[in-house]
Design a protein that fits this description.
single chain; alpha+beta; Hypothetical Cytosolic Protein, Chain: A; two-stranded antiparallel sheet; 3 helices; binds zinc ion
Amino acid sequence: MKSTSKHIPMRTCAACHEVKPKRELIRLVHLENGCVEVDIDGKKNGRGAYLCPSRACWIKGLTHGHLDRVLRMTLTPENKAQLLERGNNY
Ligand SMILES: [Zn+2]
């Protein structure tokens, strides 16, 4: 029997490591200029990481170095502060 269910791309949250459908997670992208930004439509080029749209995951991901590890880089304190601010919306 062939499965008729559509393939849903799954991604892992960098903070809580829960696997969720890609569209339910927020993509962060490491741009060529060295900054990490929230990638609203998921189309920016660069190494990406995903976080749940939850304040807890943003704080955990940003302050415990999970994001740095997934992106294989070190976020500047300014960049972290900027992203944490974005996380205030969740
Ligand atoms: Zn999470």
